[in-house]
């Protein structure tokens, strides 16, 4: 009698475990099928990123203590299309000096335009080459095109469109800030006049 009870209890627990294993397998399979979708969205459509550093202060990370960092919506869809950008857009791009890291800067000038540079750039002006951008941080002490020159537009990964955190600053990112493009750009071509 006790052995029958033991085996019936064992069979019941085995069926429950088998059902749990089947359920866990199905759930894992369903979750695994969504991994490529999430990866595609993260790499090509939209992503949420944490903005590090003070190069875009006061537009991004205005807190000087560095404890509160901005979290922003990064729009990546169409980032390789040169014509989608406007003067004043804040973009995320691969660091020209270290392609494994990213930087956040503001677009100041486009190809064919001549820019009045700042120190440490070796010349007083620079004409932006074809399919390149002149980018600068809003903070005057930023390491930007004044350090490494015009950057190829293919380094751009996306555009910072909205601040999501801190909550008191939630909303669209300002298209103005940093150096005034009208004062910095000597020669703005009419076909590239992208002032918003």
Structure commentary:
- The chain is α+β, with helices and mostly antiparallel strands.
- The protein has 2 domains: 1-44; 47-192, Ribbon (Umud Fragment, subunit A), CATH 2.10.109.
- The protein has 3 helices and 11 strands; from the N terminus they run αβββββββαβββαβ.
- It has helices spanning 2-44, 145-148, 181-184; strands at residues 46-50, 71-75, 90-94, 102-109, 114-116, 125-127, 132-136, 151-152, 156-165, 171-172, 185-187.
- The radius of gyration is 26 Å and the shape is elongated.
- The chain starts with a helix and ends in a 9-residue tail after the last strand.
- The relative contact order is 0.17.
The first-to-last residue Cα distance is 86 Å
Task: Tell me the fraction of residues in β-strands, as a range.
Answer: 25-35%
Give the number of helices: 3
**Average pLDDT score:** 87
The description of the largest β-sheet is: 8 strands, antiparallel
Low-confidence stretches: 190-196
């Amino acid at each position: 009698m006790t052995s029958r009870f033991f085996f019936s209890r064992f069979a019941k627990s085995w069926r429950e475990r088998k059902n749990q294993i089947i359920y866990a397998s199905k759930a894992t399979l369903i979750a695994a099928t969504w991994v490529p979708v999430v990866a595609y969205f993260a790499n090509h459509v939209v992503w949420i990123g944490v903005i590090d550093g003070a190069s875009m202060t006061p537009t991004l990370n205005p807190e000087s203590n560095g404890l509160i960092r901005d979290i922003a919506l990064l729009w990546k869809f169409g980032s390789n299309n040169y014509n989608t950008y406007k003067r004043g857009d804040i973009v995320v791009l691969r660091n020209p000096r270290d392609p494994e890291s990213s930087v956040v800067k503001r677009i100041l000038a486009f190809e064919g335009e001549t820019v009045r540079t700042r120190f440490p750039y070796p010349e007083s002006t620079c004409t932006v080459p074809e399919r390149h951008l002149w980018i600068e941080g809003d903070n005057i002490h930023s390491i930007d095109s004044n350090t490494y020159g015009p950057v190829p537009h293919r380094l751009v990964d996306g555009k910072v469109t909205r601040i999501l955190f801190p909550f008191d600053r939630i909303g669209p990112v300002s298209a103005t800030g940093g150096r005034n493009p009208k004062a910095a750009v000597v020669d703005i071509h009419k076909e590239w006049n992208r002032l918003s």
